[in-house]
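Hello Y.,

Per our agreement to keep a running log of every chain we model this quarter, I'm adding this entry. I've kept the format consistent with earlier entries: sequence first, then predicted structure.
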Amino acid sequence: MTTTVDRTDTRTDARRPARGQTGRLLLRLHFYAGVLVGPFILVAALSGALYALSPQIEKVVYAHELRVPVSGPDLSLAAQVDAAQAATGGTEQPVAVRPAPNPGDTTRVLYAADGESSSRTIFVNPASGEIRGDLLTYGTSGALPLRTWISTLHRTLHLGDAGRLYSELAASWLGVVSLAGLGLWAARWRRTRKARGLVVPEKGATGYRRTLGWHASTGIWVLGGALFLSATGITWSQYAGANVSALRAGLSWQAPTVTTALDGADVGGGGEHAGHHDGMVMDAPDADPATFDAVLDVARGESVDTGLVEIVPPSAEGEAWVVQEIQRSYPTQVDVVAVDGDTLEVTDRVDFADHPFVAKLARWGIDMHQGTLFGLTNQIVLTVVALAIAALVVKGYVMWWQRRPTRDAGRAVGKAPARGALRDTPWWGRTVVLGVAVGVGFALPLVGVSLAAFVVVDSLLGLRARKG
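Predicted structure for the entry above:
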């Protein structure tokens, strides 16, 4: 790899003959998106790395609530629920119970709390009935306050719905920037035919060339992870996520739901992102604590055979109890059965094996994104990929600074790649580019809006430069 090649890749001059317009266009897109959206991607990557480590941090911070000495056989669930009821004053009914999955774990008795998918959770020693803690937990994962705080930082920067725009912008553009970077990497490989210099930094390189080598080689190694995080992150987003949901609904790719109404009406709900008691009626009928044991025994005789289960009493008269697996590690176990609390008959069941393949992929993708599918290994890989993405953003800004004109003290950073790539493209090429841009804009609305803003600003700067 020579210095001439590097300068051709990154310092395109408008006076050179028009060639390789696709590469020039990708370079300009990669540059502008990196500069303008880079801060959002950087924050998302760093907060994502922190979230990937949060399950392990949680085990240390909340060891008292989560773990107890193994001291004998477990009490009945009824006795454990009674202990939780005594601790809360008995004025509210539990909305779910999660029995201790393994020896030394605590049982969780969940009560309704303000906030979507949030619960007040009482942690009970299953052997003695001792109350080990009283904390707010979140979602199917049962995240405790610290992990919930980190999750909210990653998703919204604690700014509510307005903050969701930041994470959607980051997730949407991460995929676009990554694909543009892949196109630039492929173009350089075709010119140099030196694959080694593109997958590992060039030995002996200094300054800008050294930074570029690290940026390009790191990018190609984490490309798959970046695209995966972008695609799965979009499913949580407000606008693009709605498009994904509509597509899946139209193609019947959604996960089936269990029917809880004893008259056969389908009132079951929830999807991959749903919490355990979303939409629950808070004036639910009183649940006999002994029924928790009875319906769990029935479910154990069916497909619910993992340690991690949740028992949900009826939210209204005429509804069944629900016992569902909540194990998110591989092999995935999320089977669910509905049980009539009076007759103890199974009234409906949904097995993960019966989910459409795309619904299974969505389940696995979300669990891998959250670091639960493969446990600690999953969390380590996520952390490495997230930190590498953050490093790519920083390296990009360093290259921008290193390319500044050394003889122009008035310029603190390098110039943008030269205009004209789209103008020099044949009409059919411009049509394809416009069609792709419109399609991406509809699928990823924030990309479309921000891309239009980039074009407007760039056009105004171009007019200013010509007048100057």
